[in-house]
Amino acid sequence: MSREAPRWTQVGKGALALALCAGYAVLAHLAASAPAPALFNAGVALAPGAILALLFAWRSPARRLLLPLWLAGCAALYAGSGWLVRHDHWIFLLQDLGLQLLLGLAFGRSLRPGRTPLVTRFAALLHGPLSPAVLRYTRRATWAWTLFFAAMAIASLLLFALAPIADWSVFANLLGLPLVGLMFGAEYAVRCYVLPRAERGGLWESVVAYRRSSSGAAARAH
């Protein structure tokens, strides 16, 4: 039972994070597709970036400097709220493109010579030393994720330019998470077909291994 408790805690945290992401996606869609501009809609668009910046400033050793800068930035955004309200669709677009491109860049940069592909890194955290077959597969999987996020960014940009904003918002806000989930499922199905059972792990185990590695690195840094 004691071993199961931490696992269920992790599952609960993951479910909560997923629920929050899904809730924000629905809220963002309603704000982006609203018929008339409003300050609330611009606030919804800016909220994720503002929250992430606040968390970064709070955890930084330079907290005393960064927190006042964060407050000054919020004040500047409020002062320019009129412009932001009129262009809130562009904020939503930049937010979506920024997320897709950052994720694609994270996977893509790891494919450069002398670096370890990101999926290979996750597999090594879970299994330790990897066989040549797993190394080949994880490199190709890293390529697949790179191309997936690049395709998502291109599709988002084309829909924003050519389709009604409500249609773009359905794709960017409502279909984003399900499409990532579909990609996870497809990649896992290919993994099960290509690799023997002993050399593959589930998605959840990979996430837990990565979080443990990140926590250990953070502890060593302090």
Give the key terms.
222 residues; mainly alpha; 0% strand; disordered C terminus
Detailed description of the structure:
The chain is mainly α and 222 residues long. 83% of the residues lie in helices and 0% in strands. The longest helix has 31 residues.
Entry summary:
The chain is mostly helical and 222 residues long. The protein has 10 helices and no strands.
Q: Give the overall form.
A: globular
Which assembly state applies to the chains in this document?
Answer: single chain
- Main sheet? none
Q: How large a portion of the residues is in β-strands, by DSSP E?
A: under 5%
Topology:
Layout: H1 4-32, H2 39-59, H3 63-79, H4 81-86, H5 88-109, H6 118-127, H7 132-162, H8 165-174, H9 176-194, H10 203-221
